[in-house]
């Protein structure tokens, strides 16, 4: 009798567990289908949930979120309401697409400086911090406890002690290994530090996979630094280092600074509840008086547009604008990215552009710091190579720059990689710079990288092609 009861008990538990698993799978499949995803992303998650529900469902709970409507509704708008300084400057279909998502129009009168090396970036940041008189707002993905990170924290501490308002926002996952004690002097001096969407937070506010990858620094409401560089010795430093990762950043002065600062305000309020926009209201017209000494206060001639993406943004304006620009390009599309695991539509658009005679060049590192993405990218590289695009592998060191040049009119520089995570998941920001001078400067920098690159040659072998095909199928999950 006891044996019968034990058997019956285990049978009931097994059946209930199975029913619960299938029930949860159905719930999450319904949630998955309702979300606006690419077909490849939907299929990859669907296979994971159906074929391995005991793994797929927990992973979907932790990493499957994309757009979080309730959270976005609570978050301050990423773009400022009412921007009278803006004007219709560029008649692009892409601009109309961006405006349909509420992206601010491009602004004129900006002075832009392309920052090409880690030592130059470090020098600009130091000048920016030391020259700040009233406010310093810094947001980064990675802040390390190395010589660079410690030096920057020490500088910020001194500025806070002198009465400058200092706010530092770091991503909880990107800066996971930064000990809290390293920030104690800054906090004691009056600076404020916040972690964006902590993983272990009660109550649970977000998903572990939605990370803030934006890198922005703003001083005195008038000077901004943005791009792909993290605050660690791998990216920046006082001395030249041939092993340092190659990356790009932008120094900008002008109306665009308002848009970058507002984006910081939005992320800061979400992380802390403090409304900096109320403390520092936007001027009706941009002022260039008393600008920091790092750039001249003379108005510039660059037209710049700030394009943000992420769970706090309606739709996918960054991805869709890049896709639109790919289809409208007539002369060239040059892409620099550390990781190339993009959406199928973007790859197909680039292949079509190459076939219709556009000069398509893709520069990626020979080996990145994520080996699995290097294998996953192989099928995409082969497709572009076979379409006639130039695929180049940069060998001297890790290439971490994120830039795209379209014809001679526009260069996009910022934090997004050419992968599904940056284009559809993470909080990202890019600067669309409509300046022949900036385009030319970035193109010349890219050409110097090409000189240190080797031409891609497709790797053959049945086992490799099978592995590539499998990874391509699950690439939306990477």
Total helical elements: 17
Largest sheet: 15 strands, mixed
Radius of gyration: 24 Å
Would you identify the CATH architecture of the largest domain? 2-Layer Sandwich
Question: Structural class per helix/strand content?
Answer: alpha/beta
Average pLDDT for all residues:
85
Count the beta strands. Answer: 17
Share of residues in helices: 40-55%
CATH superfamily of the largest domain: Endonuclease Chain A
CATH topology annotation of the largest domain? Endonuclease, Chain A
List the domain count as a whole number: 3
CATH top level of the largest domain is: Alpha Beta
Q: Tell me, what's the shape?
A: globular
- Can you tell me the residue ranges where pLDDT is under 50 for at least 5 consecutive residues? 84-89, 284-297
Strands ordered across the widest β-sheet: 4-3-2-5-6-7-1-8-16-14-13-9-11-12-17
Description:
It is found in: Cell membrane. One of its GO terms (biological process) is cardiolipin biosynthetic process. Its main location: membrane. It comes from Paludisphaera borealis. GO terms for molecular function: cardiolipin synthase activity. The longest helix has 33 residues, at 2-34. Helix 1 packs antiparallel against helix 2 (39-51), helix 1 crosses helix 3 (53-63) and helix 5 packs antiparallel against helix 11. The strands form two sheets. Strands 4-3-2-5-6-7-1-8-16-14-13-9-11-12-17 form a 15-stranded mixed sheet, with helices on both faces. Strands 10-15 form a two-stranded parallel ribbon. It folds into three domains: 2-64, no CATH class; 105-305, 2-Layer Sandwich (Endonuclease, Chain A), CATH 3.30.870.10; 317-477, Endonuclease, Chain A (2-Layer Sandwich). The protein is globular. It has 478 residues and is of the alpha/beta class. The N and C termini lie far apart (52 Å). Helices cover 42% and strands 19% of the residues.
């Amino acid at each position: 009798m006891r044996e019968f009861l034990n058997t019956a008990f285990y049978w009931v538990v097994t059946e209930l567990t199975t029913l619960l698993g299938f029930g949860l799978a159905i719930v999450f499949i319904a949630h998955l289908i309702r979300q606006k995803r690419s077909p490849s992303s939907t299929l990859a998650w669907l296979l994971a949930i159906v074929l391995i529900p005991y793994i797929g469902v927990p992973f979907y709970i932790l990493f499957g979120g994309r757009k979080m409507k309730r959270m976005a509704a609570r978050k301050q708008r990423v773009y400022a309401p009412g921007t009278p300084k803006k004007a219709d400057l560029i008649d692009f279909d892409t601009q109309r697409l961006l405006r349909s998502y509420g992206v601010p129009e491009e602004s004129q009168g900006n002075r832009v400086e392309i920052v090409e090396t880690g030592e130059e970036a470090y020098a600009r940041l130091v000048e920016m911090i030391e020259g700040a008189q009233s406010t310093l707002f810094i947001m980064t993905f990675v802040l390390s406890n190395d010589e660079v990170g410690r030096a920057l924290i020490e500088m910020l501490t001194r500025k806070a002690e002198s009465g400058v308002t200092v706010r530092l926002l770091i991503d909880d996952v990107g800066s996971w290994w930064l000990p809290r004690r390293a920030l104690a002097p800054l906090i004691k001096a009056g600076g404020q530090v916040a972690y964006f969407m902590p993983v272990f937070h009660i109550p649970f506010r977000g998903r572990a996979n939605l990370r803030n990858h934006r890198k922005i620094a703003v001083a005195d409401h008038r000077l901004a630094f943005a791009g792909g560089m993290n605050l660690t010795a791998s990216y920046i430093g006082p001395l030249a280092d041939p092993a340092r990762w190659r990356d790009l950043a932008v120094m900008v002065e002008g109306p665009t600074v308002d848009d970058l600062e507002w984006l910081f305000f939005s992320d800061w309020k979400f992380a802390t509840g403090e409304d900096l926009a109320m403390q520092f209201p936007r001027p009706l017209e941009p002022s260039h008086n008393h600008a920091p000494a790092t750039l001249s206060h003379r108005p510039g001639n660059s037209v710049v547009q700030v394009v943000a993406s992420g769970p706090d943004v309606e739709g996918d304006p960054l991805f869709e604008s890049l896709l639109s620009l790919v289809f409208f390009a007539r002369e060239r599309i040059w892409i620099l990215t550390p990781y190339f695991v993009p959406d199928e539509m973007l790859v197909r658009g680039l292949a079509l552009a190459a076939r219709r005679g556009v000069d398509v060049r893709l520069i990626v590192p020979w080996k990145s710091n994520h080996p699995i993405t290097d294998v996953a990218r192989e099928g995409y590289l082969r497709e572009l190579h076979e379409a006639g695009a130039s695929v180049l592998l940069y060998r001297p060191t890790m290439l971490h720059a994120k830039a795209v040049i379209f014809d001679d009119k526009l260069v996009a520089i910022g934090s997004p990689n050419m992968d599904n995570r940056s284009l559809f998941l993470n909080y990202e920001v890019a600067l669309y710079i409509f300046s022949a001078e900036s385009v030319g400067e970035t193109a010349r920098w890219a050409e110097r990288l090409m000189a240190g690159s080797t031409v891609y040659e497709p790797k053959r072998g049945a086992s490799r092609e099978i592995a590539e095909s499998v990874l391509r199928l699950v690439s939306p999950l990477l």
